[in-house]
TrEMBL record:
Residues 126-153 are annotated as: Disordered. It holds the Pfam family DUF1801. Residues 26-120 form the YdhG-like domain. This is DUF1801 domain-containing protein. InterPro entries: YdhG-like (IPR014922). Gene3D superfamilies: 3.90.1150.200. SUPFAM superfamilies: YdhG-like.
């Protein structure tokens, strides 16, 4: 199993990616990154699957780059309210939703920040629920179905 990339290295890899792109996609990814941090200063940058990932209480979104789009994929996007209609991709999935940003598209900064905050809140809510659930009883160390020995006393 691969070890996660340290945060400092992840941020450096994201910087590299932005510079490497050197076109509208790099500028768009940099803008998205800035908006993510503005929405939640506690967000953590990671590098997974060869792409930028932003997390707080779990993954909030990824920032993939393609020839014709910068794609922000929200891992729990289907559970988020999207009153501004930012989600325009991966709409048929049961869990994920994505925003494809194309060259020349204007980003609704306020709506994107609100969506990021909602995704963080959902992660933190899910995390607190999982901590408050009672754990199921542990299975005994005896094998299920094996005959029990009776002690002779």
């Amino acid at each position: 199993m691969k070890k996660p990339v340290p945060v400092e290295s992840a941020s450096a890899l994201i910087d590299e990616k932005i510079m490497e792109l050197g076109d509208w996609r790099g500028k768009t990814l940099a803008k998205v990154r800035q908006l993510i941090h503005a929405a939640d200063p506690e967000i953590v940058e990671e590098w997974k699957w060869g792409t930028p990932v932003w997390s707080h209480g779990g993954i909030v979104c990824t920032g993939e780059t393609y020839k014709a789009a910068v794609k922000m994929t929200f891992l729990k996007g289907a559970a988020l309210e999207d009153p501004s209609g930012l989600f325009n991709s991966s709409l048929d999935g049961n869990v994920r939703r994505a925003i494809d940003i194309h060259e020349g598209d204007k980003i609704d900064e306020a709506a994107l920040k609100a969506l990021i905050r909602a995704a963080v809140a959902l992660n933190l809510e899910s995390k607190s629920k999982s901590k408050s659930k009672p754990k199921p009883p542990r299975a005994s160390s005896k094998r299920a179905g094996s005959p029990q020995r009776k002690s002779r006393t």
